[in-house]
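Why does this matter for the project? Reviewers at the last site visit asked to see concrete outputs rather than summary tables. In response, this paragraph embeds two records directly. Each consists of the residue sequence and, immediately after it, the corresponding structure tokens. Nothing has been edited or filtered.
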Amino acid sequence: MVAVAVLVMLTGCESAPEEATGTLEQLAEKAECAPDVQTDAAELRQAKCATDDGAYVLTTFATDRGQREWLNQAKDYGGSYLVGRKWTVSGDSGTVEKVRERLGGQVETTEPHAPHASHSAGHH
């Protein structure tokens, strides 16, 4: 029994659907979001979404490499990211988990790497 429980924990939540694909608009529709497009460029498209799940940013990428470079830079600021093939959702962890129920993907969470984000701040 314990081995089965560990296996379920390692394979993740079974309620997440198969990873979604498509354009920014198609992904937004699957996420039940009316996208407010902020960036419409050849390399990426980005829209704000405000839903019952919370507010988040949906970004689609022209290339896998462009997505990885964007994620590497974004992670310097910390946060939760739902990552699919050529798309990401960024927002607070609770919102990202709720959106995952519709879009699938993998959650990546990081702490800020900025030098001023010290845990000793306020301890004089």
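We now turn to the second protein, recorded in exactly the same manner.
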Amino acid sequence: MSRVPSLSRDDAASIDQQPLWNRLEAERKVPTANIFRALANAPVLLDAFLSYANAMRDSSLLSPKLRELAILSVGHATGSEYEIAHHQSHGRKAGLTVEQLAAVADDESTGLFNDAERAVMALARESTTKVHVSEAIWAAAAEHLDDQQMVELTLTIAWYNSGVRIMGLLHIDLEDTYRK
């Protein structure tokens, strides 16, 4: 159970918060995900959170497939049921197969992934579990991505690491619609 109330549009403290709910409902799935309902307790920061997340998703040169592999690798490395469940569908939309989605949790040497994909997953895992990434792991990813994409990958990995920690700290429950 969440440590803070899961708010809805009806709970918005003032008419000034209605535009945030309009934005949230226009940009994200309805019904509103539990993480956003919890973050609505801090509306100004939720608004900034949405802007940052949208920029990563919509303005990045990093391919959606590599982005989702990085996010799912963070989710698996941290054991975040919420992150994994929410990004399985994003991964499918980005072109990942059901077999690949299942294999993200396993060793990156599986034949289901190309060199760039394995390098991105390794970078995400090592950054998540060790914080400091070895030169070899960095170089393997940088072989396939330019400097802008490497920065975008770095920001994505760090952003989703913060997300799983937010979910953990606030005890964000996975929505029933995502449970298998």
